[in-house]
Amino acid sequence: MSRNRNFLKYSLVSIGSVVSVGALICISCLLYYFFFGHAIQTASSPKNNHVAVLRSHFGLFDYDLSVSVDGVSLYRSSDIQGTSPVQLRAVLIWDRTGRILAYEELGKIKFAYDVDEKRGVDLSELEQYCLSPMSEEYRQKHQAVCGEE
Length: 149
Fold this sequence. Notes:
The protein is α+β, with helices and mostly antiparallel strands. It has 4 helices and 9 strands.
């Protein structure tokens, strides 16, 4: 009888330990996901000297998107509800030189950054840069800059 009790006691302790460790792993993954988000896109500059990351950060009923370059956070969107990043067509785009990074959402550029000068770029300044890949609308407007017909 005491042998069965010992077996039962050790079995319950073992099962409890496994469940506790599993629960801790799940909770830590959720906390990491909540605070640090998950990468939607990672884009290296054309010369591979900079890395940009587009992340999704989930809240209670919404989420935010953030852009970072070389580990430095540069941009965070306002709260987005009801759509996914895929539906927003959120993408990072480098210019051909690897100097300018742009964040595009639904075909419109929302944010641009000059990695050499470490400053935000006004959207009107983007006309002098050739972003790639580019939408058909952008390509038509910037044929002279990009050297494409």
